[in-house]
Amino acid sequence: MPHIEAEIIKCFTKVARIPLSPTQDDIKSYLEMKLNYVTNTYPMHDELRADIMRAIPEKISEMYGYETNS
Questions:
Q1: First to last CA, the chain
Q2: Taking the CB of residue 28, how many other CB atoms lie within 10 A of it?
Q3: Rg, the chain, Cα only
């Protein structure tokens, strides 16, 4: 998000920038953790869970420009 980065640089002129991007495994592990937590409290249809596990990594891969390995 370049507009946010520009604002941060204005305020903090001497900061070190470290680019970070999640891996596909990071994304899937995080989703599994969150979905497991939610489904312990609220039931979730298996098809919805599968759609979430497919759609979110796809969208994030578009943002970071890497291939999905599903």
A1: 26
A2: 17
A3: 17
Classify residue 57 as exposed, middle or buried by CB count within 10 Å of its CB (0-12, 13-18, 19+).
Answer: buried
Using CA atoms, how far apart are residues 24 and 60, in angstroms rounded to an integer? 9
32-48 per-position pLDDT tens digit? 999 999 888 888 999 99
DSSP string computed for the chain:
-HHHHHHHHHH-TTPPP------HHHHHHHHHHHHHHHHHHS---HHHHHHHHHHHHHHHHHHHT-----
Q: Is the pTM of this model over 0.70?
A: no
**Which among 19, 36, 31, 21 has a CA at the least distance from the CA of 70?**
31
